[in-house]
Amino acid sequence: MGLAPAPRLTVMFRPLLACAAAAMACGCADLPKVNALGPPPIDMTSPVAREVAAASNMKTAFPRFADIPNAPTDIRPVRAWSRSIYDTLRLRRVMLVEAAVAGPPPTDTEAFYNAQRERAATPVSPSVAAAAQLDSQAAFTDGVRERATPPSPAR
Predict the structure, then answer these.
(1) d(CA 82, CA 74)
(2) Confidence (pTM)
(3) Nearest 5 degrees, angle CA 13-CA 19-CA 20?
(4) pLDDT in tens, 53-87
């Protein structure tokens, strides 16, 4: 035969009994050492131990709630920030719709490369090349003449 099952009442009281035992054990503790609200102990081997002790024993005035400055008036209100956020989100949705409608960009770079290479390799007739060179030389000389200023008279 095995052990009889534990009564349900004992199972419910086990956490309560553990908390009670922990509370009784805490009664033996040294409260000044455990108190987290008091000042921490000072390490007397520290070179600044005297200054720390003097500063912790100094009586000074603590700030009051009245010392908190008023809220600034030159900033935008919360509703304006909220409106700006909603506008940004709306513009994002518009951009995503436009990007979906436009579709992905073309990626056929080989065809583009070949078309540009053929275009660049097309021979230019000598008469067109000579006319283009004369036009560019004439444009250059006209521009230089327009910008030229006569020299100042000799003194």
Answers:
(1) 17
(2) 0.29
(3) 85
(4) 888 888 888 888 988 999 888 999 899 999 999 99
